Each structure stands twice: as C-alpha cells, then as structure tokens.
Amino acid sequence: MTDRLSFSPLRLFALADSESVAHAFADAGVDAVIRRRPRMRDGAEGAPLSEWAAQLDVPLFIQIHRFHAGTGLEVERAIEIGASGIALPGAYSAGEVETLIRLVRNRAKTLIHVDLPRLLEEAEALRRLDWDHLHIGLHRSVRTMVGGLHENARKNSLIADVVASMGERSVSSSVLSFRPDGTIARVDLHPLREVSRTRSPFLIVDAPHTLPREVVSTWIRSIRRAWSDAKRPSPLPSPAEWDRSWASPPR
User: Fold this and answer.
1) Is the whole model's pTM more than 0.85, yes or no?
2) Cα-based angle 113, 118, 123 (whole degrees, multiple of 5)
C-alpha cells in the first residue's frame, strides 16, 4: 500500500493564451505558466511576451511549434524574450528532442511532449537525453494500440512501465482542462499514482481565457488540497469521482 509520505510535491504547469489568465494562474500559485504557441517568427508578439516574462512571479515557458526548419529561430527568440523554459509539442523522435536540447544549450528548461506510442518505441533513446520535463501524450492513436480507451488497465500499465523506466525524473501524462463556465472539459488523471513516485510529478492545467480569476484560484487550491490530503494509493479522485463530485467548480 502506498504511504502518503511517498508522494512527491505536485507541480502545476498552466497553459495560458492571454496575459490575464497567465496572471490569474500565477496569483493562484501555479509553479509555471506555459504560453501556447505564440507567433514569434514575425516579431509581432515579442514585446507583450517580454512583459509577461518580466512581470509574472512564476517561470514562463514558451511553447514553440512542432519541429520545423525555423525551430532554431523560435528558440532564440523565446530566450531573447526572457523565457525560463521551452516547451516542444508533439516530438516525432528522440532525434528532434536531442536537437532541441542542443539548440537551448542549458539557457532554459525543456518540457517535451511525446505521444505514448512514439515514446514506447524510443524510450531508451529518450531516457539518455538531458530533458527537464517529459509529458506523455494520450493521443487518439493510443485507442488502437490498447484496443480502446475503455481498457484503462492496459493503458495505465503501459504508462506505468514508461514512468518506471525514466527513473526519478519529471514525468507526467496528466491533463486537467476546463470549459468557459468552469466545469471540467477533460481529465486524464489515471497515471498520477505512478507519477507520484517520481521526483517531480506535474499536472498540466488548461483553461480558457474567459475563466474568472476566482474560479482559477478555487480550482488550484482544490487540486493542491486533494494531493496533500491523499491517504490512499490514488492521490487524486478517480475520473468517475471527478465526474460525480467535481463536475462544477468547488465552493
């Protein structure tokens, strides 16, 4: 049986498309804000993003586009702006991840998103690379691989194997996203039992720019409390429990 003392502190990384939501998340106590794929190549968003980096009280990760010919320029621009981290969505190979790490050159943290099927194919190569955070994507292709998402036991077993193979590193596959009214749109929390055994488990929180600040703050406090109060093997409510008890913002 898992002891609550074995749970590592949960870090919250919040996706934000607007400055107001970024500040709401920062004020609510998330550990980092991720700006989702800004248009930096033409310099149109440079000034606002540099202000984000300067004004936020938490680290700012900038999510670049999928790997392409201009990735090096995007990385340089993000670092010039003052980003504390670079997030790469949908890495196709360990080679792309290795190239990104070389482009960043330890000037910022790296957060890599890799879909589960690709990760299973290249786990050994990815394990040898010096990334900072790895997010496992539960893409639609996972349905075919495990015979349907209803077969959660099979999916969770695969994720647990990957997490265990990465050792005590910052790994997650959990996402919590919201609708504009503050209700849950999507929740993937199954692997947090396994991820809680890593050194730095984290949860990606995604919210629309219209979400009121007080709702953001309430949810962040509730997530923290659910994690710290865990006294059973699963440190957060099961998906069914979220559907029943967390379908609307907690009071």
Assistant:
1) no
2) 85
